[in-house]
Amino acid sequence: YPTWKRTLTRRAREAQMKRFCKAQAIQRRLEEIEVTFRELEQQGIKLEKLLRDEEGSPADQKTQWMNQLLYLVQKKNSLMSEESDLMIAVQELKLEEQQWQLDQKLRSYMNKEESLKTPEDRVAEQEILVQLLEVVNKHNVLIHIQEEKRLSEL
């Protein structure tokens, strides 16, 4: 094994571990968001009941409850936006992993001597290139979605 091959292998493993750790962090955050959604929903239900049931309450109390309810809605919208960003990040990680796998396959074909390649090898190499192009296009679509989202939030 030449040094450069070991270096490439090590870097590939490091990148794969990085993607794995990032995926775990995203999963944890998505679970936290889900719990927070449930909590916000419970608080919202309580506030709605208070607003409906307390007809004789002072106006300031109703205003305070209404403001709390609006705050909960705003917080929920913020969490939904974050959840959307995380789902896009998950898709990006999947595409990165898919691209890495296709790169590995492509390298194996490209490292083969041209004179030793069978017609099937050449066809497989072309198919991998097409798949790689599809992955890159999907990644571009995700970037475009993120950019549109960012611009709409501004």
UniProtKB/TrEMBL annotation:
<feature type="coiled-coil region">
    <location>
        <begin position="23"/>
        <end position="50"/>
    </location>
</feature>
<dbReference type="InterPro" id="IPR050540">
    <property type="entry name" value="F-actin_Monoox_Mical"/>
</dbReference>
<dbReference type="Pfam" id="PF12130">
    <property type="entry name" value="bMERB_dom"/>
</dbReference>
<protein>
    <submittedName>
        <fullName>MICA1 monooxygenase</fullName>
    </submittedName>
</protein>
<dbReference type="GO" id="GO:0004497">
    <property type="term" value="F:monooxygenase activity"/>
</dbReference>
<keyword id="KW-0175">Coiled coil</keyword>
<feature type="domain" description="BMERB">
    <location>
        <begin position="13"/>
        <end position="154"/>
    </location>
</feature>
<dbReference type="InterPro" id="IPR022735">
    <property type="entry name" value="bMERB_dom"/>
</dbReference>
<keyword id="KW-0503">Monooxygenase</keyword>
<keyword id="KW-0472">Membrane</keyword>
<keyword id="KW-0560">Oxidoreductase</keyword>
